[in-house]
Amino acid sequence: MDIQSIIGELITLLIMALALGMDAFSVGLGMGLIKLRLRQIFYIGVTIGVFHIWMPLVGMLIGRLLTDTFGTIATLLGGGLLILLGIQMVFSSFKKDDEPLITPVGFGLIVFALSVSLDSFSVGLSLGIYGAKTFLTVAIFGIVSMVLTWLGLLVGKRVQNWLGSYSEALGGAILLAFGIKLLLPF
Description:
ion transport; transmembrane helix; manganese ion transmembrane transporter activity
């Protein structure tokens, strides 16, 4: 394999990782609108990075054995989870208590990370069928999504101070819109 094909493959994987990581950035932007400490932001980014490693890895392994039938199912599940999280955030913003039902901590963090990484599972299925380099692919996907998640959360945290009490409703609306976008092709 010559140097041009290696560079071409790296650029292709980086562009794919950026595309997959943009949903993590968008959802991170929405989740950053709730009150989070920097330590939580760090753990959220690492968790989403790990999910963006193992979800495409599982997808690639299955993709080498199966067709891409499961890609649509993964997209539908991810969209549904984001819609549920978005609705929950919007409703909890109108309640008197300050604690949302699902927060990006513990089980809520797993649900959050799963919802933004399900699309990387379907991409992993396709790449598994194609025969992409497994380690390189999942490493790039994980690193890029982790960095983009951190950026989204930090921008959301900054914007949250400007929006005050409306920030959680806006964050929920962003998650809801992104979930609908995953479910409806427009």
